[in-house]
Structure formats: C-alpha cells, structure tokens
Amino acid sequence: MLITHTEATDILAQQDPDWGTETVALGQAAGRVLRQTLRADRDQPPFNRVAMDGICIDYAAYAAGQRFFPVAWMQAAGQSPRALTDATKCIEIMTGAALPEGATTVIRYEDLRAEGGGFHLPEGVEDGKSIHYRGKDIEEGAELATPGCRIGIAEIGMLATCGYAEVEVSALPRTAIIATGNELVDVAARPLPHQIRMSNLFQLREVLRGLGIEPALHHLPDEPERLRESLSAIVRNNELVMLSGGVSKGKLDYVPGILQELGVEKLFHGVAQRPGKPLWAGRLGDTMVFGLPGNPISSVNCTLGMVMPFLRQRLHMTEPNTVFAALTEALTFKPSLTLFQLVSLKADPESGQLLATPTPHAGSGDAASLLRSDGFLELPAERAEFAAGEVFRVLRL
Ligand SMILES: Nc1nc2c(c(=O)[nH]1)N[C@H]1C(S)=C(S)[C@@H](COP(=O)(O)OP(=O)(O)OC[C@H]3O[C@@H](n4cnc5c(N)ncnc54)[C@H](O)[C@@H]3O)O[C@H]1N2
Ligand code: MOO
C-alpha cells in the first residue's frame, strides 16, 4: 500500500532516535550543527580600534589652529597603548592598534605631509575619524548564534573570536551504506557484459557528506543467508543504515523481509512518488534503516527528499533548506504520484528568479541525466497539469 510523500515525511518526523551531542575541536566544527549558545566573551571590538595607518592627535589642538604635529612615538597593533599627555604632539599609529587615551582622531598617511620629525595636517580634519569604537559591533554577553545553527564560515570566525577552542555539536550517526545486487562489481573492476559498477554507494556517500556524515561502504549479494548474517551485524553496529536495491517486487528482492526478520520495525514500504516508489523505511531502537530503490536516480532522490530532511531534523538543524524555482515550460503528469522532475536551473538575469527547465531523460536508471541537471522540482501528486511560470520547491543536487 502506497502512502503519500507527505505521510511518509510525517512518519519520519515522528521518529526520535537519540544520537546525542559531542564536543569537537574548533577545526573540526565546520559543517556541524551547533548545540550550545555562542556568546560574546568581550565587546567587539574589545578596544577603540584604529582603522587606518597614520597618526592620532587630540583634536582640541587642531581645533585651536595647530597644523604641524611632532611625533612623540610610534605605536603598533599589539602594543599596550601609552596615553597622549602632550596635546601638541602626535603618535604614529597602525591599523589594529588600541587608540591611546588622550587621542581623539586618526589621520591617515595619505592625507599628511611628513617633514623633519613630524607631520603637516591638511584643512578639514574631523574629530573621531578612522576609529572603530569599542562595543560598536557586539556587546559582551550578546547571543551570537543559537543551538541548531549550521556552523559555516561566519560562525567559525566568531567562535574563534570568542575563544571557543572546542564546540558542542550534534553527534553524527554511525552510518553504513550497502549496495545489494549480484550484478554489481567494484569500481576498479572490469565488468562482464551483464554486470555494472556499484556507483550508488559513492553517489549516496557524497550526499551524506554534506552533513559531515562519513559512512562505511559495503556490498552484499542477493543471497538471503549472507544478507541476514551481514545485515544483522551492520544494523546493530550503526545508527543509520542505507541500502540500495532489493526493495521492489523481484524474486531476489529480499531486503524488506530480512530486515523485518532481524527485528527492524517497518515504518512504511512504498511511497506515491516518482522516482522512488519502492522506498522502505524502518527502525530498530536508535537505528534508522532506509531501503532505497536501486535505480540510481531513485536512490539519490529518496536520499535528498526523504533521508536528508529527516537527518537535518534529527541533528536539530533549525535552518530551513528550501529553494524554489519557476518552470520554464508546461508539463503534464497524470499519475497520482508526487513527481520529482529532474531540472536544470539558471537564474533569470533580470528578476534573479531561479528558472527550472525539465531535463529529458530515459527514466530513473538514466544516471547520466544527472550530469545535465541541478536538482529535482517537486510537483504535487494532486495535480496533472503544471503551467510555465509556476513556482515549486527544488531539491538541489
Ligand atoms: N514488478 C515491478 N517491478 C518493479 C517495480 C514495481 O513496482 N513492480 N518498481 C520499479 C522501480 S520504480 C524501481 S526504482 C526498481 C527498484 O528496484 P530495487 O530497489 O529492487 O532495485 P534493484 O532491482 O536491485 O535494482 C534496480 C536497478 O538499479 C541498479 N542498481 C542497483 N544497485 C545499484 C548500485 N549500487 N549502483 C548502480 N546501480 C545499481 C540495478 O542494477 C537495476 O538496474 O524496481 C522496478 N521494478
Ligand atoms: O520509482 Mo523507480 O524509483 O522510478 O525507478
């Protein structure tokens, strides 16, 4: 019995295997999901930061008419600032230095004329220039990022700025991907005419790597005994198991039966979608098992459309991952299935809107058509006609 794509998504959303959190070094944190609040440990900038190389003066002296300022000393970034007590002098000061007490404005070298041991200043100098004042960007204690945020370039920078040498993140599930099928041979092998290379393993691994998950790869033949024995160990030693192939109606499609024999509770088998109709999902304790249809486009689509949203939720990711695009041509699809239409994407140069053009392909076994595609446009099952210009969600490849 087929269930709808929405029903399948809802069933998965109710699953709550607990994969916990872990503490990782900052250098390992990129791409992971933050599970603590990132707070500013100091004001930012932490001191009145000089923003240009030049000199600093007490503006009062300039306002009183002084135009030549002898240099008292030079201060670089990293030096503890010494107060400017003699307002008739200037301090040569470098970008990144802390503005000395007594100095109120900075004039950059390009606007100065050096002579002897000092500098002539132009007309029009203003007070308070080229100073990045303490606390202007962030106040000490401010909340900069909250749990659930994906750690990207910006977060890495602020974590480092605020002294987080270690970060608490969502732990990743121990994961196995298993290719099933007697027709499959290793990538390095020379296949016989009736054999193919097990490409799905590598494709699916790349999708999961998007979340930092590094799965172990396996190949099992369509032999019940071997499948039972190996799957029993793999299911017990992993928290996420993804199989490709062996879930349809064939005489050698043993996967669903054996998983259930092993105590994996079936959540659903068969989703009203194309591609990916034979998708199987089950659970044993904190282990989630997905039986993906073997056709390469189906297994990729099921991973992008079903497994990844589930994983993002289980890893407590709060950021939505939604892209929308407009169809460039009308399309008819009569079956009551959610159609994941392969499309190529380009932005409209005037509006900037993403435009989706259907990729011609020969069905879900035509893996090469992915080369000409950028994603799947999700067209709802309740409709048969889709007009040019209509906007739908895209699963990006
Ligand atoms: N009588 C029916 N037959 C089929 C149905 C159906 O509803 N009734 N559904 C079709 C659909 S849709 C799909 S999708 C496939 C899914 O079948 P399986 O999940 O059982 O997959 P296999 O039969 O093992 O393989 C399908 C196809 O994909 C190739 N494959 C498998 N694994 C890999 C891999 N790791 N790398 C590359 N290619 C792989 C395999 O050689 C087959 O060509 O069932 C239809 N049949
Ligand atoms: O649904 Mo199958 O996944 O089209 O080839």
UniProtKB/TrEMBL annotation:
Pathway: Cofactor biosynthesis; molybdopterin biosynthesis. GO terms for biological process: Mo-molybdopterin cofactor biosynthetic process. Its EC number is 2.10.1.1. One of its GO terms (molecular function) is metal ion binding. Residues 176-313 form the MoaB/Mog domain. Its cofactor is Mg(2+). It holds the Pfam family MoeA_C. Signal peptide: none annotated. It catalyses: adenylyl-molybdopterin + molybdate = Mo-molybdopterin + AMP + H(+). Belongs to the MoeA family. PANTHER family: GEPHYRIN, MOLYBDOPTERIN BIOSYNTHESIS PROTEIN. This is Molybdopterin molybdenumtransferase. It comes from Neolewinella agarilytica.
